[in-house]
Design goal:
86% helix
Length: 117
């Protein structure tokens, strides 16, 4: 669980960085006037992060799947399968959360600031 929390925190911070850079870019250009502009900025930031996140998740999954599918008779397979199985589920969940939920949370967070100004 600790490894999954670290992985998700690391990749989540990178997603937040991409979203924040897109938001700052739109603000610097004077295009942050409405919720439509905010959504466009979030879309731009999230799309930039899509390919690197999918590549990272696939690299981790392709490394863990042979461990999961190894025969139980191999040395250390019983221990490694117990580690690999939750990691596969966690990586998939982390990828989905990062690509679908984090931009929505960012939208809600920045929308409040947009309405106040």
């Amino acid at each position: 669980m600790l490894a999954l929390a670290g992985l998700d925190a690391e990749t989540g911070v990178v997603m937040l960085l991409y979203l924040d850079h897109a938001w700052e870019k739109f603000r610097a250009e004077g295009r942050m006037k409405s919720i439509v502009d905010l959504r466009a900025a979030i879309h731009e930031g999230a799309v930039q992060r899509l390919r690197p996140k999918i590549m990272t998740a696939c690299a981790i999954l392709f490394g863990l799947l042979p461990i999961m599918w190894s025969p139980i008779t191999q040395t250390g397979a019983d221990v490694m399968k117990r580690i690999a199985t939750p990691m596969v589920g966690g990586v998939v969940t982390s990828a989905l959360l990062e690509l679908l939920l984090y931009p929505v949370i960012f939208l809600i967070w920045k929308q409040r600031g947009l309405n106040e100004s």
